[in-house]
Amino acid sequence: MDYYPVFFKLEGRKCLVIGGGGVAERKIRTLARYGADIYLVSPQLTPGLQEMSDTGRIHHRAGFYHAADLTDAFLVFCVTDDQDTNNAVAADCAARNIAVNVATDPGQCSFVVPSVVRRGDFQLAISTGGNSPHLAKIIRQELEHLYGPQFEEFTAFLGQVRKQVRETVSDPAKRRRILNNLVDGQTLDILKQGDLAQAKERVKKCLS
User: Fold this and answer.
1) With contact defined as beta carbons under 8 Å apart, do 95 and 88 qualify?
2) Calpha distance 21→13 (Å, rounded)
3) Residue 6 Cα to chain centre, angstroms
4) Pairing mode, if any, of strands 115-119 and 122-126?
5) CA of 142: how far to CAs of 116, 136, 138, 159, in Å?
6) Which string of DSSP letters, residue by residue, matches 7-56?
7) Mean pLDDT in runs of 10 for the chain (208 residues)?
8) Distance (Å, rounded) from C-alpha 189 to C-alpha 178?
9) How far apart are CA 188 and CA 126, in angstroms?
10) CA atoms within 13 A on the CB side of 59
11) pTM, whole model, 2 decimals?
12) Which one, out of 13, 133, 144, 202, has a CA that is 20 to 30 A from the CA of 171?
């Protein structure tokens, strides 16, 4: 099965997590970074999840999964070790056309979660289609060294430059030409080496 790569805007959207163990906590902490409205169903929680529930960062219902938990859900993550629960969640989501990820069974997933290198708005997602999460992790670690923290500031800088060009250059062809030439391979190599200042200067020269 092929998966279509896409980035979702999760801010304010209901994301449902079923299961309260360590895997659930890792997924929930990631979802929280993207501003999701997180609902959690589990009879027991890790201490970290309990703290998030106590402070109102997540909505927790203590108990076992019911189909009604899916109401208004945008994404569903099932991270239990109970096969009957996993089967029920997958079937209920399929019947309602809700995207679901079953952590222990790629065959029941309508989406998989990639391994991600995140530098602010700059993100690289690596997926093996669920065949080898460990391989995706190894590649992510390599890319983390190659694309360092400087990419966060540089990406934000490019966003400012893009806005400036769009506001000041009225001719569409000229605007497109400027934007397409702001970054080249040499600038990228300089940035990979950690010289953020020089990379910015090259962009400014292209802009001028």
Assistant:
1) no
2) 22
3) 9
4) antiparallel
5) 12, 10, 6, 26
6) ----TT-EEEEE--SHHHHHHHHHHHHTT-EEEEE-SS--HHHHHHHHTT
7) 89 98 96 97 97 97 97 98 96 98 92 94 92 93 96 97 94 93 95 96 89
8) 20
9) 20
10) 11
11) 0.85
12) 202
- Those residues with Cβ within 8 angstroms of residue 108's Cβ, 6 or more apart along the chain or in another chain: 86, 87, 90, 100, 102
Q: For residues 2 and 113, what is the distance between their CA atoms, to the nearest angstrom? A: 13
**Please, are residues 130 and 109 in contact by the beta-carbon 8 Å criterion?**
yes
In sequence order, the 6+-apart residues with CB closer than 8 A to the CB of 89 are 18, 65, 76, 78, 100, 102
Token digits for 179?
């934007």
In this prediction, residue 106 carries a pLDDT of 86
pLDDT tens digits, one per residue of 89-116: 999 999 999 999 999 898 899 999 999 9
Residue 1: predicted pLDDT: 63
Q: What is the DSSP string of the chain?
A: ----------TT-EEEEE--SHHHHHHHHHHHHTT-EEEEE-SS--HHHHHHHHTTSSEEE-S---GGGGTT-SEEEE--S-HHHHHHHHHHHHHHT-EEEETT-GGG-SS-PPEEEEETTEEEEE--TTS-HHHHHHHHHHHHHHS-THHHHHHHHHHHHHHHHHHH---HHHHHHHHHTS--HHHHHHHHTT-HHHHHHHHHHHH-
